[in-house]
Amino acid sequence: MSLNPATLARVQFAFTVSFHIIFPTMSIGLAMFLAVIEGLWLKTKDGLYLEIYRFWQSIFAMGFGVGVVTGIVLSFEFGLGFAKFAQLAGPAIGPMIALEVLTSFFLEAGFLGIMLFGMHRVGPKLHFFATCMVALGTLLSASWILSANSWMQTPDGVAVRNGRLVVVNWWHVLNNPSWLVRLPHMLSAAYLTASFFVAGVGAWYLLQGKHLAFAKKSVALGTAFATVLIAGQVFIGDILYGTMLKHQPSKMQAAEGFWEKESASPAPYYWVILPDQKEQRNRFALGVPYLGSIWLTHSLHGRVEGLKNTPAEQQPIMGMVFYGFRIMYGTAILMFAVATASLWLRWKRRLFTTRWFLRCLVAMTPSGIIATLGGWYLAETGRQPWVIFGMLRTIDAVSPVLAQTLLATLIAFVCIYAFFMTAFLIFVARVIRRGPESASIHAEASGSLKNALRPQVLDRANANAAVGR
Amino acid sequence: MLKNLSLTFAKILGFLVPSLVGMAFFFAIIGVFGLGFAVAGLLVAVIGAVVLVRRVPAEGDAR
After folding, report:
1. Cβ contact A252:A271 at 8 Å
2. Is residue A330 part of a domain?
3. I need a surface site. Which of A6, A78, A99, B17 has the fewest CB within 10 A?
4. Residue A252, domain extent
């Protein structure tokens, strides 16, 4: 079997970016959550907020670290796997990545230390300011990266002169047609991820009968944020759907699973398909009658455009786009259902006592990450076969490197990232198992990075204290 | 017998009411009834959620 450099470059980038996106999504969400919690603590002086802050701060720190390390790799991969893309798109993408470093990374680097280790070294208001600056840094980082990625989806403000790409309008490059819709969609996804994470951990403690005050506050806060955010997210998602339908019709045609230029009337909404790209048809399709017309055309008998409207050589692979979208959309529907149920149970004052609901919340803990990954698969696979939509094909952007080189680096990335993920999961599981009291006492006792990342040191100290040594 | 029936009815109602209200809001927010209803649905959902969260303390013990 011969190895194809283009496929390997794409698999490598897909793997590393899929791994990376988990961590910024969590840290963007948790940074804002921490800022809100610290604000509530300053306002109410309720120690429970401080306990929640300290508990999530350690998980945020670990996620932030892994996110930064895995993000740096991506910049190098532009050169390793997609040098021709870097060469052509450099004038537009390069400054945006540089601006990300200059604004968000500098801001985060300046205030992260105060946020993580400065609780007893600076005043509470300055500490809160540091937390807000870190949250702002994560928001700025997302803005720049989303601007760059949105430019690849809907390029604007550039012209090709003598085979080189020249920026003719910087504002149009930054504020390209999809950026201002994709940015709130992504930020909202990150905040939802944190909300369900917080609520899920709280629900787990409630089911275990542990740390009840902390658990109730976590469930109350997590579900409250999720309820407000998911309504906004669904609304933004629908606006984004319209934007992408206008600028990238092939993506949305593939996302709905229809092949013919016009679907039957009324159109079903497909949940499962078995597409045959070569024959341009579905071998199998399972959907809900009428729902496609209702959701997509907002009428009972509307027809939906299929992928045959796009020339075959410019079509994305339907299966990947379709299932990326269904994973995201399906998870969003579940989030909406859980949020609605939480409001109902809150109204009935059974939010903390309904065990089936608490189990649902535990199951939904990673829902934000799953939806985000689905959304990014939709965005990236739906843009294919282009790397810059309508301008540069992915196949033409690949570096002239040997397939073996890409395979070797891919194997190395898989091994290193597996180590990162294992370390992260063990750390998070340990923090959750030990509970919030441990994080609080520990935060007061520690002042160093070494201690902050080693909760077991505290346990030994507690054990010694317990036996009077 | 009647008490059991009433309990079952209450349970079904407890499931149906939030499901139907949630579905109505979802359909409205994704624009099925037009942009005006979408914006109105979003505002009612967000403001309603904020008011409910602030006014009704979520009390009770996990059992």
Report:
1. no
2. yes
3. B17
4. 190-257+306-395
Residue A68 maps to a domain: no
**A199 touching chain B per CB within 8 A:** no
Contact yes or no for A352 and B60 at CB 8 A = yes
Domain boundaries, chain B: 2-55
> What are the phi and psi torsion angles at A261 (to 5°)?
-55, -35
Helix (H) or strand (E) holding B41: helix B35-55
Residue A174 falls inside a structural domain: no
Count the domains in chain A: 1
For residues A324-360, one letter each, b for 16 or more C-beta atoms within 10 angstroms of the residue's C-beta and e for the rest, the string is bbbbbbebbebbbbbbbbbbbbbeeeebbbbeebbeb
Question: What's the CA gap between A73 and A175, in Å, rounded?
Answer: 26
Neighbouring-strand partners of residue A327: none
Q: For residue A1, is pLDDT > 70?
A: no
The more confidently predicted of residues A162 and A325 is A325
* Cα of B5 to nearest chain A Cα, Å: 20
pLDDT tens digits, one per residue of B14-43: 788 888 888 888 889 988 888 899 999 999
Q: Which two tokens stand for residue A202?
A: 């709280």
A195 vs B contacts (CB less than 8 Å): none
Distance CA A242, CA A130 (A): 38
Calculate how close chain A gets to B1, using CA atoms only, in Å: 25
- Rounded CA gap, A86 and B21, in Å? 50
Asked if the bond preceding A266 is cis, omega within 30° of 0, the reply is yes
Q: A227 with A338: CB under 8 angstroms?
A: no
Q: How far is A338 from chain B (nearest CA, A)?
A: 10
Residue B33 has what pLDDT? 87
In the predicted model, is pLDDT for residue A438 greater than 90?
A: no
* Closest residue on chain A to B13 (Cα): A344
Structure confidence at residue A447 (pLDDT): 46
* Residue A349 to residue B46, Cβ atoms within 8 A: no
DSSP state of A305: B
Asked if the structure places residue A373 within a domain, the reply is yes
* Residue A268 near residue A291 (C-beta atoms within 8 A): yes
A197 in Cβ contact with A223 (< 8 Å): no
* Contact residues on chain A for B56, CB-CB shorter than 8 A: 346-347, 349
